[in-house]
Amino acid sequence: MTQPAEPRLNGRPDTATPGRLVAHRGASRVAPENTLAAFRIAAGQGARWVEFDASLLGDGTAVLHHDGTLDRCTDASGPLSAFGAADLARIDAGSWFGPGFAGEPLATLDQALELFDALALSANLEMKPQDGPPEALAGVVAAALGRRPWTRSRILVSSFELAALKALRRLMPDQPLAMLYEDPPDEWPDVLAALGACSLHIWHQALSDALLARAAREQVHVRVYTINEPARMARFRGAGLAGVITDHPPLFLEDPGWAAWAADQEV
Ligand code: G3P
Ligand code: MG
Prior knowledge:
Elements: E1 8-9, E2 12-13, E3 21-24, H1 36-45, E4 49-56, E5 62-64, H2 109-119, E6 122-127, H3 134-146, H4 151-154, E7 155-159, H5 162-171, E8 177-181, H6 188-195, E9 199-203, H7 209-218, E10 221-225, H8 230-237, E11 243-246, H9 250-253, H10 256-264
Parallel strand pairs: 3-4, 3-11, 4-6, 6-7, 7-8, 8-9, 9-10, 10-11
Antiparallel strand pairs: 1-2, 4-5
Helix pairs in contact: 1-2, 3-5
The structure holds SN-glycerol-3-phosphate and magnesium ion.
């Protein structure tokens, strides 16, 4: 794969594919979240970006998982820390969602990155340290990304955990980063500037005209999660909103206005 130029936003590392429409945990409305199947389906729906959650098992293997335990989204039970790479072969991360997904593996970060490269998908990797040290997760993520030079331009790393992002920035000075907040504190521009983060990711209900205006002054992208009602975002579409993270891309892509907006910055 050719290496795109290295874009920067306000001097901060940015992705080469800004990606306005992002499939949350893959196509999570119609497939088990954070699985390879969910990413394949998202790509089939027309999404060029996916979001996923990265956490560590007890032996330091990075897997795609939102919760601190395997109970909700697999056929296993217990905290992630009680499992390791040797357990992956017997964990089913698809049956809980539907019989058509039986046998879907609990994906490792390496498997996911390989698939993204094959499908030319870009991704928002959300680091979720759970109860473990944020630096440990950041170290494993940095090593996985470091093995694949294309990720520099096609992976945007985010987290609610500032310590995880700080650790990643120390290890990867040029990796595009995003700070996640449910509701951003007043000092968010200082936090993003200190991190060298190019994007602010917030809960959709925290979005306002004032926040978009401030983000424009600060020259950072704003993306909102998790929005499954396009109409609620319509007035922000032409007002500088950089991206939406949704469980169901067709909600946006089947609407000509949103489809045009999404296509504007897709490659
Ligand atoms: O990255 C956006 C969104 O995924 C953050 O919340 O809980 O769905 O990981 P959550
Ligand atoms: Mg997430």
